[in-house]
Design goal:
mainly alpha; 73% helix; globular
Length: 192
Amino acid sequence: RRRTRTVPAFLNKLSIVQFFARHGESELATSCLRQLATRGNTEAVFLLAEQELNGGRIQLAEELFQAVFDQITRMGRNRNRFPNAENSALAGKALVGLWTAARRSGDEQRSRELERQIQLCLCTPSVTTRSLIAQYLGEQGSTAMAIDAYRTILPVVALGDAENGSLYDVARQYSTLAYKTEPYEAAHWFDL
């Protein structure tokens, strides 16, 4: 009779990867990340894609970002509804990763197509999803697109919709991103 080996729940989460990374154990962190990815953890696959992109392995990064995007959209189709805001944002971030890879590889046509898809993602009614994508755009150096996204988010959050997060949080994210290009407007929102 074959024994099934169960993996402790804490090993099935990204927190163990973060634990090893914080303590300088990058090899263990990467090994755990790869294990999580092979078990189907979408976030782990996304983080591996980021590592590959940062390491200059653009083709592999594109494959991994595409796998993340495909997996999340497949989940949505199987359930006949959209995934939650975090998964939707992860799909949008995967598009940003694909866009970054296309720009780095010089594929202008693919870059324009992906930019358009990202702009469509930023039209979602979920401000949480838009905020997470905008934040990631800023982290990836796409400041202009991130600022434009925040400009559409701020008025909605200012109206006080509880689902859409706190005005303070969104205003701080926006102002720290916009302070170089639009210091007066950034200061206005930073003073909230």
